[in-house]
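To assess whether ligand presence alters the predicted conformation, the chain was also submitted together with 1,3-dihydroxyacetonephosphate. Input:
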Amino acid sequence: MKKLLLGTNWKMHKTEEEALSYTSSLIELTKELKEFQIFIIPPYTDLKAVKKLVKNSEILLGAQNMHWEEEGAFTGEISPKMLKEIGIDIIEIGHSERRQYYNETDYTVNKKVLSALKYGFIPLICVGEKIEEKEYGVTSEVIARQIKIALHNVSEEDAKKVWIAYEPVWAIGENGIPASPDYAGRVHTLIYNVLREMYNDEIVKGIPILYGGSVNHDNAVPLYHQPHIDGLFIGRSAWDAKSFRKIMDLILESRSKENKE
Ligand SMILES: O=C(CO)COP(=O)(O)O
């Protein structure tokens, strides 16, 4: 069975001290679990310290953003070369908060994806429709455009390294309403079909599509059962290591019930 990808985006949370305490607990709590590929995405200021802890574990480490240039006059930005030196595995690209507050566009997402691939990172590309786009019935068009532009000029060989996260904007954060598992499953199937327009079937089967947006202890299992949901990308419910582990336990419980049935 393929490993389920389970990761958490910390957003602008956790000082270095908090990051170290969380990471050591998570390593301890998950060290015997082989069913999941766990990843954590802390703020830049925590990355070096967290890397020292995770480097002897199976946990992958990501950064929340990256400039596409190696260096230059880009005050406040972080380059692929800097992240490579720390030993980062994943670059999260195009999260809706970056699209909403920091002028991230489909075109800058594409530049970052190409740069991340060039430097050997896994680009974790976030896509998702806004509430008004859902209400006007253009979710499929929005998602198809985001995916096609993000992957523009990405070769078949490189597409194998890409991860995609479907995060409906209206589902994210404290005021978010989680997508129903059925709705999420339908959009994941749509993403899968958009990818099939771009790449051959073998490659598409290997591209994981994660769901994110108010994943919690109640909806993690039904989401995991949907078609083409290959992982969960979690905010609040995974910011406490025990709460994150609880999501893993719920999934394991449901898997063992299935095996018995
Ligand atoms: O934005 C998210 C992951 O990138 C999800 O955040 P929440 O799980 O807190 O809604």
